[in-house]
Amino acid sequence: MAVNMTWISDKKLTWYESVCMNVLKTGQVPRHVAFIMDGNRRYAKRNHIEKTEGHARGFTKLSETLKWCRDLGVTEVTVYAFSIENFRRPQSEIDGIMNLAREKFELLLKERDKLSEHGVCIRFIGDLSLLPADIQRQTAEVMLMTRNNKAARLNIAFSYTAREEISRAVRDVAAGVSDGHLWSSDVTERLVEQCLYTRESPRPDLLVRTSGEVRLSDFLLWQTTHTCIFFTEVLWPDFSIWHLFSAVFTYQRNYDVIQAARADRSLRRLQHSTDGLLPGTARPSDSMTRPGDSAGESLDSTDSDSECAADDRVDSASQSAAAQKRVQSFLSHLDAARWGRLESLVAEGS
Amino acid sequence: MKQLLYSLLLKLLHLLFTCAELVYGAVQRLMWQFSRVPVTPPLADICANGQQLAKRPEHLGVIIVEKDICWQTLADIILWSTAYGIHYVSLYDRSGRVRAGSEQQLRPHLERRRRALFGAVPCTVSLMEGGAEPGPTANGHSGDGDGQYHVSVALLWEPDGVGDMVAAARRLCSEVASGARRADSIDRHMFGDQLRAAAAWPDPALAIKLGPVRALLGYLPWQLRLTEVLDAPPRRPLLYRDFHRLLTAYGGIQQRMGT
């Protein structure tokens, strides 16, 4: 079977797929879609092929799915490629997955021009220190290579679990307090979120899990509290554009109620902010809606970034200017440290 | 012109789906009205059903994402779980309606349904908010769990989710600031121990979602790591056979734990 050896598929849609896509696009389209790409091994068993071939076909499906998302207007995709828990698999399977990863990440490096042309920024999220050194260097190189691409972002969760992500973010914040960059009173939900691997990204609007499993498996637990979740029985290598259309249609049908819940949440955080009011800061009541306003309208729930903006308003309402300055300085310092580590990795390898 | 046509087509599709859902719902309600309501089996049969399950969750979550709360359903789920030997049940409603209605609504329903199902058999139900100490129980006992049947019920809302994690982060940072703790001592094991919602409870192995919304709306995100999420059928009050089917379906799920 010919394998599609590219991250940027240019496979054309059929006319009826195009029509359906154009119909869907006139409604709400999720800006950020997350995928738990489950079912490669069961697919391999069902089709009497090796597990590594099943994973390879899973990659082909990923490439196709990214194309469909681009065509739909989805600007950010996060995929769960490899969990920290997956290190418990037989060594031969892990070696096979790592070899596949090497091959695909090398391909990313070769497709630099295509990635630039499409403006795709790639980010690997997870505890990359658990990966073989050469793969760490590859991931660092890819992230540095694409950091200035702004049109779309692909987050590849590799050696990732949400609990590791959250506890690491809290550890980073605590280190900031220990080093004197932050005060403990500066700690807010927004600050912790800005220290997660998915910082700067809007929360996923839609989460798709294939293979019939109905759990999140330690994936984006913080980020998906108010995300439309679509579970489907199909195995990942069999995932089709029609399954994606179903997921987006489901998102549209749940859009209003989920947006209302998101807006409600931001409003409640504003009203019950536990950050404490400091002299000279805006009182929460100044930012609350007037009676008769709908929470959705005042928080501009038509924009999927509105939650981030609302979170910023919560923080601004309760933090002093000095606190905001400390937080910004800390985040810049953290960001610089992260990019510095990536640059060191690449420099070591060259 | 094409865009207008596509837009109309999409609106028509959504309208058709909405109509289909309404018609289906109406037909279902009619059928329920005119069909015989299956009788809830006696306690001994329910207990036997529970024993026969391939596996039981230690902690059952109930995520309420529907507009109207059916208090009888919540009371029944608590009591059936008790009969199954499930000792922890968390009820989650993001806006806190369950917490607010626990005295006026939930307790009376619990007491009525407990008398109907358990009769004179001792049954201890401890209601608590978030991670608070257990309060007086529905049957007036002190909740020390010395009856054969006992369950702790956590009444949770949105601040028990991400808010709890942020509060834990703040506490840890205060300890670091005071020198009582090192920042690098924070890992995923110790952070989980800092959370107060359903503190010291096992993670929910199963969550039953009540309502059609395809989202969890903030239910215990940290604890939800490996939770199986199953949708309850729309009928209210929920029938025992539907509860049993959900638990049976859960029993058939195999978790590979990453392997």
From TrEMBL, chain A:
Its EC number is 2.5.1.-. Its cofactor is Mg(2+). It catalyses: n isopentenyl diphosphate + (2E,6E)-farnesyl diphosphate = a di-trans,poly-cis-polyprenyl diphosphate + n diphosphate. SUPFAM superfamilies: Undecaprenyl diphosphate synthase (SSF64005). It holds the Pfam family Prenyltransf. PANTHER family: DEHYDRODOLICHYL DIPHOSPHATE SYNTHASE COMPLEX SUBUNIT DHDDS (PTHR10291:SF43), DEHYDRODOLICHYL DIPHOSPHATE SYNTHASE FAMILY MEMBER (PTHR10291). HAMAP family: ISPT. This is Alkyl transferase.
From TrEMBL, chain B:
Its main location: endoplasmic reticulum. Transmembrane segments: none annotated. It is an enzyme of class 2 (transferase). One of its GO terms (cellular component) is dehydrodolichyl diphosphate synthase complex. The keyword Transferase applies. Its EC number is 2.5.1.87. Its cofactor is Mg(2+). InterPro entries: Nus1/NgBR, UPP_synth-like_sf. Gene3D superfamilies: Decaprenyl diphosphate synthase-like. GO terms for molecular function: ditrans,polycis-polyprenyl diphosphate synthase [(2E,6E)-farnesyl diphosphate specific] activity. This is ditrans,polycis-polyprenyl diphosphate synthase [(2E,6E)-farnesyldiphosphate specific]. It comes from Amphibalanus amphitrite (Striped barnacle). The lineage of its organism: Eukaryota, Metazoa, Ecdysozoa, Arthropoda, Crustacea. The gene is NUS1_0.
